[in-house]
Amino acid sequence: MAGTPFIQKTPMPGLRLSAGITLTMLSIVVLLPIAALLLQGASFGPANIWEVVNRERVWAALFLSFRLAFFAALFNLVFGLLLAWVLTRYDFPGRRIVDAAVDLPFALPTAVAGIALTALYAPNGTFGQLAAQFGWKIAYTQWGILLALIFVGLPFVTRTVQPVIAEIDREVEEASATLGASRLHTLIHVILPMLAPAALTGFALALARAVGEYGSVIFIAGNIPMKTEIAPLLIVIQLEEFHYQAAGAIGIAMLLISFAMLLVINLIQILSRRRMGHV
Amino acid sequence: MSDMITDTIAQTGARPRKFRAATAESTPVRLALTLLALAGVGVLVVAPLATVFAEALAQGWAAAITSLGNHDAQSAIRLTLWVTAIALPLNAAFGIAAAWLITKFDFRGKALLITLIDLPFSVSPVVAGLCIVLLFGANSLVGGWLVAHGFPIVFAIPGIVLATVFVTFPFVARELIPVMIEQGRAEEEAALTLGASGWRVFWTVTLPNIRWALLYGALLCTARAMGEFGAVAVVSGKIRGQTATMPITIEMLYNEYLSVAAFSMAAALTALALVTLILKTTLELRHAGQLAANRRH
């Protein structure tokens, strides 16, 4: 990079103004607040942070949050692929309405989703009663949390994969069929690898969203320490008692684990793109 | 015409055979997959939506409307609309500026800048609220100074706006950047060569090209801004009639076992969300070509 200027010369106007607005807002809204958290952590010290995080209740909450977020994202990966395929390839009455309904979890406020899911899946709710007949308790258990996390992450994989399916060249499928591959074989060995990078992007977005989700979960979770208490709730509890340093310590732990996870997913994605040769 | 063909087939005794294309699944498989998809969307998405309205109207229209008419409910609705009205132009201005900077200039560190703009999507809203409390809370250096000068941020409206801008930060920029990359710089350069000023180029060349994408990003931003709960819950202090937004009010009413009131407020918020969803879907149908096709979320 030596020799190339920091900014390439261009007659395009507005460099100072656009850079000014972008960097000022980015700093005030995002960077300075996150720096405040990290600074707080630095002054608190790694040993103290470890002492806060290394408690049974905190570990249980972190493990619960990341484990259920992973399972919810995994469900959304499979169901999202199915949904994207059905909505793009098949035609049936009401397809457009179903397609629009997939976006509802993005539009519906999380608190609304939380109380609605709770009303529906509580032991006296419509679906809750049904499940109770089979001895299955959903609301106020980990199943309820999983359900809420599936709800908030539902559209991500579908929305990232749909445009890729629409652009698949049918000739590739025809070639595969001509060469004697069964339809299932074609789907698994020809189509799925083409969808993998986009699906993985959707998976990562759904995972990141589920890990930090708060609004839709706290109503249905029951919030029993060690059992159904998610990590973001622990932060809220510490803040309500004005334990800023403890809240910051848990916040930093969550940030670090999230970033590590996204890094791994990005690496897998780079590898899968390289295997595909292009895209 | 088709009758004639049917007759011919009937006369010759040949039966019409349907061949399945080699690039399609068999009918039973199609049917099964479609039903599975419909059942999933029904149970996971449509049922909760229906529940909101059913619970709100559990004691009739009158009870639902009365509960929305009281002073605290009115104040929550006003606050949510205000916060959205302030956060939206801030994010639109940022999104346009960032997209202009990223797509019209070549500089080092562009990838890093894009990553930083996307950062709020991978930070939990609760952690976002925590960061704002740590920076601007009364105990902090900055926050203490601001409180001393009569401008509190945390547990006041500026904090709610800040938290809302944080969680909706990437929406407009992410919609505009792919569209502006695709359109390139040639049109703007031509206008500049013809002597147009920078602002004239933006208003008459760039903006008409990106208006639908801008509106699309603004709709996503609006939906999220009205409904944000986690980040706002941490910074608002939940003062009834003052810093309680609609989602916060829903939580307070629900925890007080005022089910009809909570679901009525939820139904009002859902109605607003449905309006943004319908507008967004209309945009997708009419102006698909001018939206960021590859990132429809």
Automatic annotation (TrEMBL), chain A:
It is a multi-pass membrane protein. The keyword Metal-binding does not apply. One of its GO terms (cellular component) is plasma membrane. InterPro entries: CysT_permease, MetI-like, MetI-like_sf, Sulph_transpt2. GO terms for molecular function: ABC-type sulfate transporter activity. Its main location: membrane. Keywords: Membrane, Sulfate transport, Transmembrane, Transmembrane helix, Transport. The complex is composed of two ATP-binding proteins (CysA), two transmembrane proteins (CysT and CysW) and a solute-binding protein (CysP). Part of the ABC transporter complex CysAWTP (TC 3.A.1.6.1) involved in sulfate/thiosulfate import. Probably responsible for the translocation of the substrate across the membrane. Part of the ABC transporter complex (TC 3.A.1.6.1) involved in sulfate/thiosulfate import. Belongs to the binding-protein-dependent transport system permease family. CysTW subfamily. This is Sulfate transport system permease protein CysT.
TrEMBL record, chain B:
It comes from Paracoccus lutimaris. InterPro entries: CysW_permease (IPR011866), MetI-like (IPR000515), MetI-like_sf (IPR035906), Sulph_transpt2 (IPR005667). The lineage of its organism: Bacteria, Pseudomonadati, Pseudomonadota, Alphaproteobacteria, Rhodobacterales. Keywords: Membrane, Sulfate transport, Transmembrane, Transmembrane helix, Transport. This is Sulfate transport system permease protein. The chain crosses the membrane at residues 35-58, 79-102, 122-146, 153-173, 213-236, 257-279. One of its GO terms (cellular component) is plasma membrane. Residues 77-284 form the ABC transmembrane type-1 domain. It is a multi-pass membrane protein. PROSITE patterns: ABC_TM1 (PS50928). One of its GO terms (molecular function) is ABC-type sulfate transporter activity. Part of the ABC transporter complex CysAWTP (TC 3.A.1.6.1) involved in sulfate/thiosulfate import. Probably responsible for the translocation of the substrate across the membrane. NCBIfam families: 3a0106s02, permease_CysW. SUPFAM superfamilies: MetI-like (SSF161098). It is found in: Cell membrane. The complex is composed of two ATP-binding proteins (CysA), two transmembrane proteins (CysT and CysW) and a solute-binding protein (CysP). Its main location: membrane.
